[in-house]
Amino acid sequence: MATDETAPAVKALVITTGSRGDVQPFIALAAGLNAHGHEAVVAAPRRFEALSGSAAVAFVGLDDSIFALQEELSGSGVGAALTGVRRARPYLRRWLSDLTGLVDVQPNVIVCTRKTLGGTALAERLGVPVVPAQLIPLEPATAQYPIPLAPAWWPSAANKLSWRASGALEAPWRSMVAQWRIDQLGLSARGASYGSLVDQVGVLSAWSPHLLPAPADWPAHAAPLGFWTLPGPVEPLPDALGRFLDAGEPPVLMGFGSMLDADPARLSDEVIAGLRMAGRRGVVVSGWAGLGAAVNGDDIFVVDQADYRALLPRVAVAVHHGGVGTAAAALTAGIPQVVRPYFGDQPFWASRLHAMGVAPAPLGRLRSAALAERLTQAVALAPTARQVADRLAGEDGVAAAVDRLERLIEDH
After folding, report:
1. pTM assigned to the model
2. Which of 13, 132, 372, 407 is deepest in the core (most CB within 10 A)?
């Protein structure tokens, strides 16, 4: 970590979008920059302003109206998703318009994900370096495994070919972004591609090498740095939940994040039946999954949300959707996991957790008997989960990323 008082300070604009799992690590990065004497501003959907405030991180709220559409279309099939692309255009215009206002932040470096769409253009407009960042591997390509978004049947011989899907994620919006660059930023229609920027300056890869090591054919400047974990204070658990936890053996955590199940009532019934078959108490974090059909009782407690940093160390097993943020939190807490992946990169991480020996084989559609069986298998993996947590304790992904940014500003 740079300590020279004459070294230029980092003034970072950190831009991200998505669910809490997409945003929280970048708030952690900003907090780390502040802690090391730098300055950071997070620009993200405005619904995360309170989360940023709890970490004492400066925040600029961006339009988040597209979330309503995402919630409506989740689990609705390919046809609805294609229609959603057209319906999303007005929301994207609002998002890009809000990005334009970020020129007033006057950073000396911009950190952004591919999903922000316009982050690299802002850096071009301001004449400052841009550092790509990723929570899952999207760049650069490797022959070792397919891109995590590839279907499970993808042939290994075509692994490297699958990485072209990374650039295709931007395809539906390129014309709109090009017009925005011209009209609002005064730039040419096309700038450097995200992939070419990764080749030039590298990418901040915010996962642990213990979860997924760097492929042998990756350059050093793309290697994983470690998880970006939000510092304290930990949000206290609700009093009623605390009493439930104190009343018996550590329960099973059930939470599917922002996933929306097509039949939440059925999911609730299967979850509760599976827990009782396994003889386990359960904490059900309802979230967006809509698990509200469950009713509190002596063996089941339902909560809308809870700080996983406080909750996970007090449970026996975490059952979740396979998002890398939840997986990271459970790995750090040293508890085994059961994964029911839905789509995207979730099957990839479910497979990785199984290969590490901290989770049994992933669940398909959640059924009570299968859940009970996986819970029994997961409990037996507790020693391995604790060993992984011990290894993770020696990592500081935020500090590694701050060091990378400091060196970039020194060299710029």
Report:
1. 0.90
2. 13
